[in-house]
Every structure is written in structure tokens, then in C-alpha cells.
Amino acid sequence: MDSRASVDIIRSKIVNGPIVGTMVWLAWPVIVANLVNMSYNLIDAFWLGKLGKVAFGAPTVCWPLIMLFYSIGMGYAMAGIALISQYVGAGDKEMAKKSAGQLISFLLLGALVLSGVGYLFIPQVLSMIGVPPSIYPLAVSYARIIFLGIPIVFFGFAFNTVANAIGDTRTPTILNVSSAITNIILDPIMIFGLLGFPAMGVAGAAIATVVSRSIVSIVGGFLLFKGFKGIKVGLSDLRIEKWWLRKVFSIGTPLSIQQSFNALGFTVMMSIVSRFGSTVIAAYGVVVRIINIMQAVTRGLNRATSIMVGQNIGAGKYSRAMSIAKTSVTFTSGFLALGALLLFVFSDQAVSFFVNEQDVVAEGSKLIHAVSSSIPFFGIFFVAGAVAAGSGHTRFVAALSTVRLWVLRIGLSILLAYIMKIGSLGVWLAMAISNIGAGTIALAWLIRGTWLRRVIEPSPKLTFKTARPSPK
């Protein structure tokens, strides 16, 4: 396939091809990538566990803070999907290229600031949150190396965003798989000092993570500046323009706030759960991991939904964009309903697969029975997030996300578990209520269709037979 023509061929498939077939075609590489990305922390945890609980605990206390910083970059990267995909859908490759270049510059500049802030202040923050003295120096060392690598990670965000917005989900997956394999190889070498390298312990795990993630950035940068699928970013495209900055702040700021509040909120949820002791903590951890595995599939569908909604809105195909959203809701909720049913029926076996202790299995089963019926609604909520990211209309879903976590989940957990003294069951019921409430409201927002309008202004010379004015 000719690289210059490929963006047009991919666009044609996304705006004209069968919806279900195209969604699966876009989704499966992302599903693979999501499963692979789970390996980073798992591999670090596996090898550091060999050094003891102190080494194992250092990354554990750091990652909520690291994810808080990452979430800012991810929010603005998602804004890039809305802009670039809509320009591609409108057939305006020149503006898609300019948006790609400006996204690279914006994320790199932001990464440099966040990297410096994180490096300087992580010792004070870890001290403030009460990290034990035995873990503290290792945690500072680990976090500082990860923060120095933030520009590398954000450049990878930029490449993944551009590639996905064009409609290429395969190339990022290949690079992410290569990165994960590199991490698997480097971890024991850097941690234990193999092949002539010094044994660096926790710091070695951080270095392995940064080096392996650089694969996506280096190869992705080479492809973008050489010419990728007909989009070739030049030096002139890196200059950030005011109109673009206004757009990306308008779309990306709600997403970044949402991601940051979520990262902070789940830290608070963990503290609520922790008050009930090690059994409840273990049960919560097991069930969250099981749901995350199920979500690896639905996240792939969500990314496909964002790409397809963005390009079809850009092309003026609003009825098709609505059909894509409805198809995504059907597939996602259907898949999760089936998964939830199996999880409900085999709850004991699912929990015991991870932790085969009777008290944990009993508590985990109680949690599953409380939340299983709400899992399909949980999926609908994330479909709405995908549609918001693709359409560029992000404020409502970002606000709903905050209410879901901080009011319905955290607020109700405190009310039911502590004030009404229901105990851990109160936390599990709050999780279910938050999923059902947010999913129902998200579905109403999707059906209402206020998101069916462009956030871009294509070049006047571009016209499409399929386009029609945005609905009011």
C-alpha cells in the first residue's frame, strides 16, 4: 500500500465501510496493546518482589503520583484525537499535519515542565503522604528516574494519538509490544546486574521502564518526520498557533482534570477500603484486576469508537456517527453483561484463582455479587467518554466522571459504610450505584446527540457530498 495514499484508503474505510467490521478492525490491535501495557507494572512487581517487600513497595507508593502526572498528558493527547481525526475525516490533510506537529510541541513542552516539577518536589510529597522510612529513599530514587523519562513517554503519547487519529492502530501496537518485550528483558538485567551491568535494584527497574518506552518515541518520531501514512510533519508544523492552543485547551482541559481527579479519587477509594483490613483490601484488589482484564477488550472498542466518531463527524456524516455510538454501546454492554454473568456464577473460582484464602474468597464473592449487575452500565459510561473524545465535546462527560467518582462512589461509600455502618458491603453497593447512575445519564447524553457537531473549521475549498450542516 502506498504510504501517501494510505491515509485516504483508511479514511474511506472508516467513513464508508461496514461499521461493525471497521470497529473490530480498529479495536483488536488496541486490545492487544492494552493487555501488553499491563505487563509493565506486573513485570516490575515480579522481579522487585524477589528483593523483598521494601523494594516491592517503592513503585507501589509512587505510581498513583506518577499517574497523576501522566493523566495530564493523556488528557491533552485525547484532545489531539478529536482535532486530527476530524481533519482527516474532512479530507484536510494539511490541517491534520499541522495539528499533529503542534500536538508534539505542546506535549513535549508540557512534559519538560512536569518532569522538572516532579523531580524537584517528589521527596517532599512522598514525605507528606507518610511513606515509611524504610521505603522512602528507594521510592524517591525510582520516582525521580520515571519523572526524568516523562518527555519520552509524552512523545510516545503524541505518536500514538496521531497514528490512531489517522486510523492506524496496528503500528502503535507493534511498537508497544516491542517496548514491553524490551522491558521484560531489561528488568532482570538492570535490577540484578546481569551481563556485566551493575546491580541497581529499584532504580534499575525504573531505568528499564524508561529505556523500553523510548522505543515508541524514537521509532514513532522517525516515522512522523519521514512521512507516515501520507502525513509528514515538518519543522514549520511544530510552531504552536493561538487558534490551535485555544482548541486543545477547550477540549483537553476537561479531560486532563477528569483524569487527574480520577487518579486522586482512586487513591482516596483505596484509603477507604484499607480501613477494613487486609482481607477486604485483597478482595478489592482481585476484583479490580478481573474487571481491568475485561476492560482491556472494551478499551479497544472505545478507542475504535473515538476514531470512527471523530472522522465521521469531520466528514459531516452525523447519522453514521450516531450509528457508530449505538453500535459501540450494544457491543460493549453486551460483552460486559456476558462477562458479568459468568463472573457472578463463578465468583468463588474467579477470586480463588488469584488468592486462595477462604476469607478473601468470601469477601470477593460478596463484592462481585454486589457490583456484577452494574458492570454493563460501567461500560456505557466509558463509551460516552470515547464519543466525547472523538467529537471533542468533553465537558459534560468530564463533569459526570467527577460526580460518579467523588459524589456517588466516594460520598456514598462513606455514608453507607461508616455513617450507616453497613461495613464493606456499603462500599460495594456504592460502587454499583455509581456505575448504574453514571451509565444511565451517559446513555441519555449519547441519545440526545448534542455532541454531533464539529470542533474544527475545514478549509473552505473542501466540500463533501455526504456533508450537511451540524444539527443545532
Topology:
Blueprint: H1 3-16, H2 19-37, H3 39-49, H4 53-89, H5 93-128, H6 136-148, H7 150-166, H8 170-192, H9 201-226, H10 242-274, H11 278-314, H12 318-345, H13 347-354, H14 358-371, H15 375-391, H16 395-419, H17 424-448
Would you write up a description of this structure?
It is a single chain. 81% of the residues lie in helices and 0% in strands. It is mainly α and 472 residues long. It has 2 domains: 17-240, no CATH class; 246-472, no CATH class. The two termini are 40 Å apart. Mean pLDDT is 87; it is low at 1-5 and 463-472.
Write a concise synopsis of the structure shown:
The chain is built from 17 helices and no strands. By secondary structure, it is an all-alpha fold.
Task: Look at the structure and give the mean pLDDT.
Answer: 87
Number of domains: 2
The helix content is over 70%
Biggest pleated-sheet summary: none
Beta fraction: under 5%
Low-confidence segments: 1-5, 463-472
Structural class category: mainly alpha
**SSE order, as H and E?**
HHHHHHHHHHHHHHHHH
Radius of gyration: 22 Å
Supply the number of helical segments.
17
| Quaternary organisation | single chain
Which outline best applies? globular
Number of separate strands: 0
Query: In angstroms, what separates the terminal alpha carbons?
Result: 40 Å
